[in-house]
Specification:
The protein is α+β, with helices and mostly antiparallel strands and 119 residues long. It has a domain of 82 residues. It is 47% helix and 18% strand. The protein contains four helices and three strands, in the order ααβαββα. Strands 1-2-3 form a three-stranded antiparallel β-sheet.
């Protein structure tokens, strides 16, 4: 199921306060994407494990960085098992959804804390 489908299902069944997809997206200040090959082109290697060069498939790794209003950032990622299946549009979508799932947990924790402090 997609994030949007899960959101509709959760909203339909909710009777109490909850974190919605709209709540999460309202907290986002920017989203940036990069592929693994571009990351490696700019990375500084502080430590090398073995003598192997980076994978030639690094360009099929999609990295998404989401920054929140409070400055918190999360990284999401996606990569196909086969480089022939790489689709940059889907890569960005899946990496973004990985970020959203992480943020859902964090904002859920915040909401739980707020609800507990009111009781």
């Amino acid at each position: 199921m997609s994030i949007e489908e899960n959101e509709k299902l959760a909203a339909h069944n909710a009777t109490e306060p909850r974190v919605s997809l709209a709540d999460i997206e309202a907290e986002i200040t920017y989203v940036a994407y990069m592929t693994g090959d571009r990351y490696l082109a700019h990375a500084t290697f502080l430590e090398s494990v073995g003598k192997q060069a980076p994978s030639p498939d690094a360009g099929t790794l999609t990295i998404c960085m989401v920054s929140m209003k409070n400055g918190w950032m999360v990284l999401g990622k996606s990569a196909p098992a086969s480089p022939k299946n790489f689709n940059p549009v889907l890569g960005r979508r899946f990496a973004y959804e990985d970020c959203i799932r992480q943020l859902w947990q964090l904002l859920g924790y915040r909401l739980k804390s707020e609800l507990q402090s009111k009781s």
